[in-house]
Amino acid sequence: MGNADAIRTERGDWISRHLEEYLSSGGTRGHIMDLADVGGRAFTTHCLIRFRGRNSGKTYVKPLIYGNFGGELVIVASKGGADNHPEWYLNIQASSSVEVQIATQAFAATWREPSDEERHEVWSYMTHLYPPYITYQQSTSRRIPLVMLALGEPIDVFTP
């Protein structure tokens, strides 16, 4: 089993429990998690993104680590260093917008991908926030995408 597969297997149930805790608490729990046991930081911030499946049309919600870079949220399409992009990334590529919840507030958002020097700066920032991203990138030949979210109008928090 590859590094990415091992991480996904070990963390799969944890991700489901994290999502349930975040949603059921209205965002009062799940925003900040201690990821020191997996090489991260003790106070790692997480958002929820809500998007529509590009083929199914179903609505999905995913918890993701985020950073705040220049007033935009940054999420990383790492998939633990797998050789293919995460489904959430492929789904938002098919849409011009996404919804995001940060703790107890939610917003409509637009997204973009940084390039060139900005991408380098954002990548450096995100690997500082969550050092395992470096190992993830080393374990795959794909360039791990960075997604910048510009928050728009407030919306209701997500529900289970």
Task: Name its key features.
160 residues, F420H2_quin_Rdtase, oxidoreductase activity, Nitroreductase, Split_barrel_FMN-bd, alpha+beta, eight-stranded antiparallel β-sheet, globular, coenzyme F420 binding, Pnp Oxidase, Chain A
Summarize the main sheet.
8 strands, antiparallel
What fraction, in percent, of the residue positions are helical? 25-40%
Structural category = alpha+beta
Number of domains: 1
The shape, in one word, is globular
The succession of helices and strands, N to C, reads HEEEEEHEEHHE
Q: Enumerate the spans where pLDDT stays under 50 for 5 or more consecutive residues.
A: none
Q: Between the first and last Cα atoms, what is the distance in angstroms? A: 33 Å
